[in-house]
Backbone:
């Protein structure tokens, strides 16, 4: 028998494309994993030496969807700092926040609004 074709060499599988895909996936997941910016909300815990309440009630209810109520009356988020400031002798007076059915994002948005307006003593009520 005659063999006219050159002998075939066995080819081993090439791993380069698989390694390329693995590195592309690695880079993709490394980039996607850090899209969110982590923040922290400083909370002060109440102590035994807390002062007494002075002045009128300052209860801010946070409802689902970000709706706000001040002492039971609906208030727009833009008007809340002015209406709350009228009830306070100083910005360091405590303000009670209550978020019964609201999401955590709604509560944090209300806290950001109040801290940006200068209210520093926020008390979170269950």
Residues:
């Amino acid at each position: 028998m005659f063999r006219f074709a050159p002998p075939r060499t066995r080819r081993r599988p090439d791993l380069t494309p698989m390694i390329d895909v693995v590195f592309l996936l690695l880079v993709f997941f490394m980039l996607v994993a850090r899209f969110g910016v982590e923040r922290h909300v400083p909370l002060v815990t109440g102590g035994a030496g807390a002062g007494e309440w002075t002045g009128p009630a300052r209860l801010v209810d946070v409802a689902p969807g970000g709706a706000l109520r001040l002492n039971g009356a609906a208030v727009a988020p833009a008007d809340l700092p002015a209406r709350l400031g009228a009830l306070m002798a100083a910005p360091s007076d405590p303000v009670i926040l209550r978020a019964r059915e609201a999401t955590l994002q709604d509560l944090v948005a209300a806290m950001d609004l109040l801290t940006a307006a200068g209210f520093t003593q926020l008390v979170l009520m269950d």
User: Anything to note?
Assistant: Residues 59 and 71 are 5 Å apart (CA to CA). The first strand starts at residue 59 and ends at 62. The mean pLDDT is 84. The longest helix spans residues 16-32.
